Amino acid sequence: MQGNLSEIDIRSILQLIDLGQRTGELFVKAYSSSVGSSMDQPQQHFPREPSWFVFFLSGQIIYATPSAGSLLRLRDYLHRYKADRYLDTIQVPSVASVNAPEYGYLWALLERGILTPAQGRSIIHNMVYETLFDLLSLRRGAFIFELGPALTPQLTTLEVSSSLTQIMKQIQEWNQFSPYIHSAEQCPVISVPAQLKKALKPKIYNILSRWSDGKTSMQQIARYLNRDILTVAKAIYPFVQQGVVQLLDQSSETSIVKKPNGLEQRTKVSKVVCIDDDLVIREIVKSILNQHGYQASSLSDPIKALGEVFRIKPDLILCDIAMPELDGYEICSMLRNSTAFHQTPIIMLTGIEGFIDRVKARIVGATHYLTKPFGESELLMLVEKYIGPGLIEDSQLNKIFSKNK
Hints:
The protein has 405 residues and is an alpha/beta fold. The chain folds into 3 domains: 2-175, no CATH class; 187-256; 271-404, Rossmann fold. It has helices spanning 10-19, 72-79, 101-111, 117-136, 160-175, 193-199, 202-211, 218-225, 229-242, 252-258, 279-291, 302-312, 328-336, 355-363, 376-387, 394-404, and strands at residues 2-4, 24-30, 51-57, 60-66, 141-147, 187-190, 245-248, 271-275, 295-299, 316-320, 346-350, 368-371. Strands 1-5-2-3-4 form a 5-stranded antiparallel sheet. A 5-stranded parallel sheet has the order 9-8-10-11-12, with helices on both faces. The longest helix has 20 residues, at 117-136. The two termini are 28 Å apart.
């Protein structure tokens, strides 16, 4: 199941997964308001083209996360239990999914006894609600739901219907704060301390003044205090109206400085190899990916391609199925037998739409399956899903935006 949010909204997608008792993962990518068709309302709540994953077991939610691969959110939640310092002592756990690294780290903390199961469940519940709050506020984007094995192990599950009811009510209340508050990532700073101190009890004032440094977002404050974002926004809102508290937008530069090395900020351009005997397909894929910040290479000879793949060592491989001498299934199987490509995402390209082909692709270890003809957005969604967004310079962004206007 896949499509655009102009055709079906997030709430309906979640309800369909719930009704069908589906197990798998939902990937959602927002569309920037600078690209594509116009919107009724600007998407000020979101940074440039973010994306999310939601994991399901028999229609119930196991876990949900932004797909940036960041541990900042988990670090914030651990702060309330004074356990955030342990995060730096843990190596990447084997249970960590490619799409859910913080889930693996959370389990490592549970296994070490640093967190109790009750604390772990509380963190997961808050993470799910936080992610769904963002998703249900989204109006422009695209989605893919893929059936597959459940994210394991599971600590808890949440019912979709009850979660939707609660979060939709929160979103309605949140919208009433506009235009004074428009993002959970805004950072409060106290403009008139004497007036605020007079209006609040000393304990509450001390808590608010501690975090109102212009660098800590309302979302972070909510995590530290074990409150939802709506509660924090309600507390701050009257003082923002009066001008006693100001809200600053986080700059991208500040966000980068706060990111731990190797987790939130990629400095290496991801490499993608496309193996296809069709010249037109190869050149189209190469052009799209290079334009969007990836280093793409195209290979036509399936036999020579194996040697080139080992030389290039790509982060992701796109491979046609129907090729002479050596088909895509054989190539995928050979690559999976090598430890060098045991975890590398391999996406099969084919003009054949059929259940048997999908089964064969899974048997030989393919990560995903893309049917020709496919559009630019479909290709980019899948590539970003498995290796993240490309590194695009400002000049490249201007070209992309001007092309889509």
